[in-house]
Each structure stands twice: as C-alpha cells, then as structure tokens.
Amino acid sequence: MSIWARISEFLTTVPANALSGVIEAVRTALSGDPQLRRRVAFSIAMIALSAKMAKADGVVTQDEVRAFQQIFIVPPEQTRNVARLFDLAKQDIAGFEAYAERLAGLCGNGRPDCAMLEDILDGLFHIAADGVVHEREVGFLRRISEIFAISEERFEIILSRHAVAGEADPWRVLGLELGASFDEVKAQYRRMAAENHPDRLIARGVPEEFLAIANRRLAAINAAYETIERSRRPA
Predict the structure, then answer these.
(1) CA atoms of 210 and 196, how far apart (whole Å)
(2) Cα dihedral 216, 222, 228, 232 in deg (nearest 10)
(3) How many Å is the Cα radius of gyration of the chain?
(4) Dihedral of the alpha carbons of 11, 14, 17, 21, in degrees to the nearest 10
C-alpha cells in the first residue's frame, strides 16, 4: 500500500478539523513499522509545515499545493487528500512550532542535525522558493531548524543552495571557508555527494516520491564543485 493510501486511511479516522489527530494516529498505528511510520510522517510533515509557512507568509492559496506537487510526486487520485491536509493545517489554531515539535519526534532520530529533518527543511525551502525566498519565510524556516536541532552551520548550507541573496556561493553550498585547499574541496564534495545520493535518502526513510528534491540538491552540489574547480584551473 502506498504512503498516500495510508494517509487517506488516517484522514478517515479523525475529526475533520484535527490534523493533530492524524499525527497521533500515525504514531500509534505504525508503531510496529518504524520505516513506514517515518515515510508517512515525512509526507505529513512536508504538507503541514508547508501550509503553516504559507499562512505565516500571509498568502494562502492553492499555489502551495501545486508547488508541493512539483517536487513531490502525488498520484492524481490522491491530490484531494493532499489538499485536505493543507486545509487542516491552515485551519488548525495550533502554531507551526507545536507541529514542528511533534513531527520531529515522528521523523527524527533524537540527535542533532538529523539527516531526515534536514531533508524536510530543504523541501520547505524548495516550496518557498517561487523565484525568491522572502525574509519572512527565511525567519520561519530558521525557527523550524532550531526546533529540529539543526545547527546554524547546517542551516546556512541549506540556505545557500537556494540562492536567497542572489547567485549561490559555491563555497557556502559546500560548507567550506573561502580559499580552502582543493584537496579539502574534493574531499568535502565527495562526502556531500555520497550523503545526498538518492539511494541514501531512501535508506533513511525518505519516500521515493520525494526524490526530485534529492536530484536538485545533488545538482546544486555538483554545480558548486564545478564552479570552484574551474576557478582553480590555470588561465
């Protein structure tokens, strides 16, 4: 059964205005299958926090659902359920911080800089980046990163990939100090390429439907490395 079919099941078991009930249902019903629980929780986290981000930004339209679908492959027959989850999150009086804390408990491993929580944050940046990530959205995402226990350094690396302030800085994308040796550049590039390979994301529980994000992230890492490599070539 697909993650979307499972989410659809959970939606039928809770009151119409209680997204918190969906989260709790996931925690309880899938307690014996941690891998599936992480995949379902990841999907709910992306939808719920995207909706809260849209509400915080003051723009609540169906554009957010479409942006979500651009990076997360949703079967046509499940689009209505995605829209319903967006609506539940937007209407719920609970703040985004409460959602982030509960979802971190479902998706995370309890340790700082959890890779899966970084994946969620990266996805939220993609959804926010409709050409420009606005200052208010950056503030929202920074607070999410704090709740997720993502370090400032890791947050800045994710932020830099989305070129919030113009063209992406290749050094920041790779998490390196300007002028690091090329041996350091190569080692860091290989490490980040391995960490962000789509197969690694699947292994840690990211749904296959989300791999468009992994491919875009890897493209940004490759582009940063190539830019630095070109700058080091003899004239």
Answers:
(1) 13
(2) -160
(3) 18
(4) -100
Those residues whose C-beta lies under 8 Å from the C-beta of residue 20, and which sit 6 or more positions away, are 92, 94, 102
List Cβ neighbours of 147 (8 Å cut-off, separation of 6 or more).
97, 100, 101, 104
Q: How far apart are CA 40 and CA 45, in angstroms?
A: 9
Beta-carbon contacts of residue 42 (< 8 Å; ≥ 6 apart): 107, 116, 119, 120, 205, 206, 207, 210
Q: What is the pLDDT of residue 134?
A: 72
For residues 218 and 220, give the distance between their C-alpha atoms in angstroms, rounded to a whole number: 5
Write down the pLDDT at residue 155: 93
65-111 pLDDT, tens digit each? 566 666 667 777 777 777 777 777 777 766 788 888 888 887 878 88
Nearest partner of 79 among 55, 96, 62, 92, judged by Cα: 62
Start-end of H helices in 92-210: 96-107, 115-128, 135-147, 152-161, 170-173, 182-195, 198-203
Question: Residue 40: left if φ>0, alpha if ψ -120 to 50, beta else—which one?
Answer: alpha
Give the model's pLDDT for residue 71. 65
DSSP 209: G
Q: Which residue positions in the chain have pLDDT lower than 50?
A: none
